[in-house]
Each structure stands twice: as structure tokens, then as C-alpha cells.
């Protein structure tokens, strides 16, 4: 049955099938990547801030290196720039967030393109099938064999159905990936805010002590 459908669908059906396989492969790869990229950011941030509170910067950086995902990379970036000005830290964190977001969105356009192109390919197959049927009718007129006409119409319906069968799951897959990316972006934004607030709080607490120490020495 499947072989018969593929044969009747013609070259357009093979193109649609290739698009569907490509989109599915990209969806699986991106889903696994995003699954590994998302961590329990709240627990991670609590652990990092506790370590930094004790002054173990090297340990905090090691944990960031060993933890997968954009949140850990951004926290590491902020920790490395902790002695810079607030604006410099924010700029570094923003650049890191943009780079990580771009990395997460890599090849996402493939899934979106499949969702958009598949129904158009199905429509193309429909048009070609109908043209084939009309040519047969003109060539055999006035005695038209229904079996010959039906071949083109069946090809038209098969490609239309195949285009929709590929397009609908691809569209759903694209939106699922976008939702996952948005959640990780929110985690990144939360991590930036919390780490910056933590560093600002440390500066505020350490400032008076350092000033008092300088006056005492003077």
C-alpha cells in the first residue's frame, strides 16, 4: 500500500517526504539540546551565591563550567566580570544572553520552513495532477477513459494530503521549540537579575567596612 502511494504520488511526494524527515530530525536534535540546556536555575543560583558568599570564586567558576546550559554560562560571565562597573557587567551579561539565545535558535528556521513549504508543495502536486488529468481528457476526447483521468486526480489528492500531514506536525513542533526557548530565556533573565543583585549587595556590605579599615589605618 505504501509503495503504491509513493509511486502514484510522483516526484513531488518524494520531496514532501524528504522535507518531513529533515524537519523531524531537526526537531529531535533541538529538543534534546534544549532539554539538556534547561536546569533547575533556582537551586543552581542558590548554590553559586552560597559559594560566592564564602569567597570561593574558583569553585563557583568550576561548577559553572561543569553545569550545562545558558544559565550557567551567563552566571560564569558575570562572575568573571564581577570587578567591572555595573554597566560593563550588564553589557557582558547581555552579550552572553544574546549569544546563547542565538545558539538555541540554531536550525529552528528549518522546522519553520518545512511547515510553510510542505502545504505549498502539496498544492503544486495538486496542480500538476489536475493538469495531467486535463491533458488526458483533451487527448482522449470525446471517448475519455475514466481510469486514465483518475490517475492524475489521485496524484493530486495524495500530494495535498502529504503536504498537510507534514506541515501540521512541523508547525506544532516549531511552536513547542519556541516555548522551550522562551522558558530558558526567562531563566537567563532571572539569573542575571539575581546575580547582579547579589553582587550589588556584597558591594554595599563590604563598602563601609573597607572605608572604616582605611580610616583606622590612617
Question: What does this protein look like?
Answer:
89% of the residues lie in helices and 0% in strands. The protein has helices at residues 2-37, 41-53, 57-66, 70-80, 86-104, 108-140, 146-217. It has one domain.
Descriptive keywords:
single chain; 218 residues; mainly alpha; 7 helices; 89% helix; disordered C terminus
Q: From the structure provided, what is the oligomeric state, counting identical versus distinct chains?
A: single chain
Task: State the shape.
Answer: rod-shaped
Number of helices: 7
Summarize the biggest pleated sheet. Answer: none
Overall number of domains: 1
Radius of gyration: 29 Å
**Distance between the first and last residues' Cα:** 93 Å
- The low-confidence parts are 208-218
Rounded mean pLDDT is: 85
Task: Assign the structural class, choosing from mainly alpha, mainly beta, alpha/beta, alpha+beta, or little secondary structure.
Answer: mainly alpha
Strand content: under 5%
Query: What is the helix fraction of residues, given as a range?
Result: over 70%
* Strand count: 0
Summarize the helix and strand pattern as letters: HHHHHHH
Topology readout:
Layout: H1 2-37, H2 41-53, H3 57-66, H4 70-80, H5 86-104, H6 108-140, H7 146-217
Helix pairs in contact: 1-6, 1-7, 2-3, 2-7, 3-4, 4-5, 4-7, 5-7, 6-7
Summarize the structure.
The protein has 218 residues and is mainly alpha-helical. The chain is rod-shaped, with a radius of gyration of 29 Å.
Amino acid at each position: 500500500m505504501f509503495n503504491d502511494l509513493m509511486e502514484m504520488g510522483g516526484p513531488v511526494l518524494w520531496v514532501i517526504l524528504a522535507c518531513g524527515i529533515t524537519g523531524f530530525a531537526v526537531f529531535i536534535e533541538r529538543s534534546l539540546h534544549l532539554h539538556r540546556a534547561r536546569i533547575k536555575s533556582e537551586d543552581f543560583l542558590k548554590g553559586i551565591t552560597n559559594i560566592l558568599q564564602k569567597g570561593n570564586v574558583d569553585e563557583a567558576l568550576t561548577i559553572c563550567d561543569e553545569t550545562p546550559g545558558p544559565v550557567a554560562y551567563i552566571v560564569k560571565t558575570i562572575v568573571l566580570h564581577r570587578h567591572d562597573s555595573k554597566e560593563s557587567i550588564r553589557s557582558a551579561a547581555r552579550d552572553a544572553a544574546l549569544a546563547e539565545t542565538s545558539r538555541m535558535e540554531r536550525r529552528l528556521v528549518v522546522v519553520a520552513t518545512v511547515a510553510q513549504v510542505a502545504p505549498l508543495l502539496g498544492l503544486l502536486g495538486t496542480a500538476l495532477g489536475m493538469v495531467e488529468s486535463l491533458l488526458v481528457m483533451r487527448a482522449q476526447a470525446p471517448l475519455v477513459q475514466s481510469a486514465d483521468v483518475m490517475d492524475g486526480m489521485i496524484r493530486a489528492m495524495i500530494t495535498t494530503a502529504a503536504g498537510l500531514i507534514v506541515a501540521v506536525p512541523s508547525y506544532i513542533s516549531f511552536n513547542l521549540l519556541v516555548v522551550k526557548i522562551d522558558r530558558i530565556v526567562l531563566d537567563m533573565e532571572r539569573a542575571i537579575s539575581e546575580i547582579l543583585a547579589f553582587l550589588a549587595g556584597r558591594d554595599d556590605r563590604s563598602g563601609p567596612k573597607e572605608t572604616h579599615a582605611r580610616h583606622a589605618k590612617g
